[in-house]
């Protein structure tokens, strides 16, 4: 469903929200309720991308020898308070 709302968000400058919602058979109120959550998700994605870049830099600087425990320790040393699961294998 969020793909539908993302499409409406992208096309709302070309066509009215009411028309798009009617054509796609979704409630306007649902679209407007979705908007604040999408903005929060975009902020989180940007933070995740920045963290992934920082982890990659640390991993490359270690000549690809640092694993999750050392990457996590290095982030803590740099005052980046990140849960170990978030700084884990998804990024390095």
Structure write-up:
By secondary structure, the chain is mainly α. The chain has four helices and no strands. The longest helix has 34 residues, at 28-61. The chain is elongated.
Question: What is the strand and helix layout of this fold?
Answer:
Elements: H1 2-11, H2 17-24, H3 28-61, H4 68-77
Helix pairs in contact: 1-2
Assembly state of the chains shown: single chain
**Helix-residue proportion:** 55-70%
Return residue spans where pLDDT drops below 50 for at least 5 consecutive residues.
Answer: none
Rg over CA atoms: 20 Å
Structural class: mainly alpha
What's the overall average pLDDT, rounded? 90
- Sequence of secondary-structure elements: HHHH
Ends distance: 31 Å
Strand composition percent: under 5%
Number of strands: 0
SS element count, helices: 4
**Principal-axis shape:** elongated
Largest sheet: none
Task: Label this structure with key terms.
single chain; mainly alpha; 92 residues; 0% strand; elongated
